[in-house]
Amino acid sequence: MSTTTMTPANGVGRAALVRAAQGKPAPSAAQRVPMGIRTVAGPGAETTTTPTPAQPDRSVERLLRVAAASGSARTRNLAEKISGLVQELTGRVDAEEAQRREREAAEAQRQELAEAEAQLARQLAEVRQKLRTTGRDTTAQPSRSRREGAEQRAAIRAWALANGHEISARGRISGEILRAWAAATGSEVTR
Length: 191
Known about the structure:
The protein is an all-alpha fold. The chain is built from five helices and two strands; from the N terminus they run βαβαααα. The longest helix is centred in the middle third of the chain and has 62 residues, at 73-134. It starts with a strand and ends in a 6-residue tail after the last helix. Residues 7-11 have low confidence and may be disordered.
């Protein structure tokens, strides 16, 4: 299926330039299609392929060299502008590629760190499990001295109430009551 679309774009001169850049000859009078009309070869339409002559070298570099050597000042100026734009485009593409490589390297490093973090978390879980099974985990149950201190404070509060001292059910026990309890019971106060 062949589609040809022709739209007016800055007159006939531009169309001729586009055809010349593509290496196509100008259409003959029989082939001309009015501007803005689209022709489509439908199903069953015969298409004949004619061998195309060898295409001339139309690379950007060659076109710029030819245009720079042109006798027309306008063509030389256009070649100079395009040459500058090509250099700017090349610089931008190189910068974008460098940024892409940096992003990929950063992402790879993030993945490595995440894997290392997961491995350390597994190792820490194993160590905690071993501590629990060996009974050496001090956070699993309160220490003996803490329990003894709590029991001693409860005994001091009970003694103080029984002996007429004013004491609250919670909070710090005053030094006066601690000294009186130690003197009365002959015990040593542990905190």
